[in-house]
């Protein structure tokens, strides 16, 4: 019996040379795929727990001290009596909650915030859904022999080395100081031991942060690598996107805005604006040294026509009311077109009027 392996399953990554598109990233995010590191969450949780123990020491020790005093001063409990047993149980639960609850809630809150921040405040249940890929033996085989497994092994070794080296070094220093405290008050020695343990864990958590930062960078790179696409996938997505009516509508709207911006930029060059007077407006430019016929450099209907007239007034361009000519120019010409020969006579009369008006104004100004 021969086993056949699909080489493409293992060489697929080599064909993915293109960076993920925006759509691919959005789809991955909807599925709960984000770049995050468990080491960052663990490092933050460890650091906050140590800082909590260090700075909220009294809030932990005091309930324990008071509870111990109360417990040892009331040893005459009759556990066969329901009232005594319930009072003792209530006391133990209350004291335990006072000590444990603030600590646990703080750690849970910090871990949740860090996880949430790493995922850019994403809340989704997609990652909890059952997927065939999770139980696919080939995918499992690839995960076992992937770079992630090697990195996880290296991280575990680093953690063991850090804990071992730091613990050994710190224990030697602690033992010397402990010998110097021989004969001191027991509470002082206990407090010193607790402080030393907290400082040891604090120092370890700082070093774990270094691992967490490196791991976060690695996870980010792996995330980008996982999202990479083949050239065929990019082309196919482009076709799907371009075929989407909503996308097409947005593209047309954007093109329309750009076209209007260019049109209004050209408008100040116009020699005349011919209007309907309210529904249509067409701006003409005549450059006899370059072209034989005038050109339409702007045109609009209703609101755009009003804007053209406003811009014409602003730039002191002559506005001529001619209903039939304005409508004909609007229907027969696009922006950038030369006027058709059948409108030469009508446009020539308008331009002659405009030029004579300008000459008259110049003479009067002199």
Automatic annotation (TrEMBL):
Where in or outside the cell is it found?
Cell membrane
Q: In its keyword annotation, does this UniProt entry include Cytoplasm?
A: no
A cellular-component GO term for this protein: plasma membrane
State the superkingdom.
Answer: Bacteria
Q: Which residues cross the membrane?
A: 40-60, 99-123, 144-168, 200-218
Q: Does the keyword Transport apply?
A: yes
Q: Which UniProt keywords apply?
A: Bacterial flagellum biogenesis, Bacterial flagellum protein export, Cell membrane, Cell projection, Cilium, Flagellum, Membrane, Protein transport, Transmembrane, Transmembrane helix, Transport
Query: Which Pfam families does the record cross-reference, listed alphabetically?
Result: Bac_export_2 (PF01312)
Listed GO biological process terms: bacterial-type flagellum assembly; protein secretion
- Topology relative to the membrane: Multi-pass membrane protein
Q: Which PANTHER family match?
A: FLAGELLAR BIOSYNTHETIC PROTEIN FLHB
Q: Name the protein family.
A: Belongs to the type III secretion exporter family.
Function comment: Required for formation of the rod structure in the basal body of the flagellar apparatus. Together with FliI and FliH, may constitute the export apparatus of flagellin.
Protein name, UniProt field: Flagellar biosynthetic protein FlhB
Q: Which organism is it from?
A: Caldicellulosiruptor acetigenus 6A
Print the organism lineage: Bacteria, Bacillati, Bacillota, Bacillota incertae sedis, Caldicellulosiruptorales
Q: Give the gene symbol.
A: flhB
């Amino acid at each position: 019996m021969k086993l056949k392996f699909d080489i493409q399953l293992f060489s697929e990554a080599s064909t993915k040379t293109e960076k993920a598109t925006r759509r691919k990233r959005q789809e991955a995010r909807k599925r709960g795929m984000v770049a995050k590191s468990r080491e960052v969450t663990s490092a933050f949780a460890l650091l906050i727990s140590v800082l909590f123990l260090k700075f909220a020491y009294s809030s932990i020790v005091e309930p324990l001290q008071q509870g111990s005093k109360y417990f040892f001063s009331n040893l005459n409990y009759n556990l066969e009596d329901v009232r005594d047993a319930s009072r003792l149980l209530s006391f133990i639960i209350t004291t335990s909650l006072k000590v444990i609850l603030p600590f646990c809630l703080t750690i849970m809150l910090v871990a949740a915030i860090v996880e949430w921040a790493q995922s850019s405040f994403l809340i989704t249940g997609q990652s909890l859904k059952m997927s065939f890929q999770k139980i696919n033996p080939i995918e499992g085989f690839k995960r076992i022999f992937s770079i992630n497994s090697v990195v996880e092994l290296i991280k575990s070794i680093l953690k063991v080395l850090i804990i071992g080296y730091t613990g050994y070094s710190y224990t030697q220093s602690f033992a010397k100081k402990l010998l110097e405290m021989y004969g001191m008050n027991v509470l002082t020695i206990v407090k010193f031991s607790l402080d030393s343990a907290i400082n040891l864990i604090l120092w370890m958590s700082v070093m774990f942060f270094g691992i967490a930062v490196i791991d976060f960078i690695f996870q980010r790179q792996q995330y980008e690598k996982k999202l990479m696409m083949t050239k065929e996938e990019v082309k196919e997505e482009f076709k799907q996107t371009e075929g989407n009516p909503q996308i097409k509508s947005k593209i047309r709207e954007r093109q329309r805005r750009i076209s209007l911006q260019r049109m209004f930029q050209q408008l100040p060059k116009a020699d005349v604006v011919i209007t309907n007077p309210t529904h249509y407006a067409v701006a003409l430019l005549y450059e006899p040294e370059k072209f034989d016929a005038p050109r339409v450099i702007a045109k609009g209907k209703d609101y755009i026509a009003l804007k053209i007239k406003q811009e014409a007034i602003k730039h002191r361009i002559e506005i001529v009311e001619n209903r039939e000519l304005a409508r004909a120019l609007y229907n027969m010409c696009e922006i950038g077109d030369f006027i058709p020969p059948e409108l030469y006579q009508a446009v020539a009369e308008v331009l002659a009027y405009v030029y004579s008006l300008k000459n008259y104004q110049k003479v009067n100004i002199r």
